[in-house]
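Quick illustration, no need to memorize.
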Amino acid sequence: MRLKDISINNLKRRKGKVFFLILGLTIGMTTVISLISISRSLEEDISKKLDEFGANILILPRSEDLSLTYGGMSIGGLTLDAHTLNISDAQKIRQIEAQENIGAVSPKFVGVVEIDGKKIPLVGVQFEEEQRLKKWWKVHGTFPKRQDEILIGHEVAVRLFKSPQDPLLIGGKEVRISGILGETGSQDDFFIFADLSFVQETLNRPKSVSFIEVSAYCHTCPIDEIVRQISKTLPHAKVTAIKQTLQSKMETLDHFKKFSVAISIIVLMIGGLIVFTNMMASVHERKREIGIFRAIGFRKTHIMRIIFLEALIVGLIAGVLGYLMGLGVSYFFGPVVLGLERVRWTLDPTLAIGAIFLSTLIGVLSSVYPAVRASKMDPTEALRAL
């Protein structure tokens, strides 16, 4: 009889104990696969939300600033070889190689207007892009849809005593306040937002842009690569990543990865302990059988191979079941437990092979000591004990 047949027959004969052995290892692999699947979905969800939270790339006109001092006292500065941005630069950003990673491109032109004797910053924006960029904005009223409609910050409304639908005179042109921006606690509260082309025309700077804010999806493409591509496309501009946003994103994702790895290690150790305990009990129960094998001429390596084959079969079955159950658990319970919109059901061949290999490896490694102990059994003592 071949060793493979002996191992399979032993497993068939001990169906109850083999079931619990497979169950223990399957639960461990299910937990690991669930954590990995949920962690991936969580990373994507957090990354998307952070990407949508605002600009993470700022584009400014490139200039050489020379600071002047005399006698240790600053007397101002000079701007040499200053460049300018225009509306066509925003369109070029949409054409870079990593264009699918660009969420919003919001060009802005900033000026100052005097209203009722008060100087107030006027910001020209493309409201459609601004809505994509600043999804946290709460507007009392409606977003501007026409050139003669504006959006004013909370503090501006207080200073000018204005409400939605009130008229306002800007640069000799009458516009209507379509909405008032809810208090944000940022500089947006002190601005008047108007259509970009309207502001350019009012300030007599057609097509000019003060700066461009870009929201890039960094989950699938490094932010440094996007910055490099934009810099290459706009050599006259200074392109910088807003480090605070990126650092916060990377730290958050890193915490989830570390948490998943730590829990996975603990669960796998428990799974290995279950296999070890069951194999030791199996060896103890099969003293007579092992003694007979040794008495009829089986070598120590043969005994070890029988134990390892049993562990290998158990590991393979537990790996397949653990992978499928892990996907099911993450798909049905991940959204409920973590509040995710959904967890994608995708059959990842790499993850499947990894789960089966890891389950098999744990089963075999946990059986090393029981296998060695079984191989060292003296056939005479084993038979005499029974």
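DSSP finds 13 helices and 14 strands in the chain.
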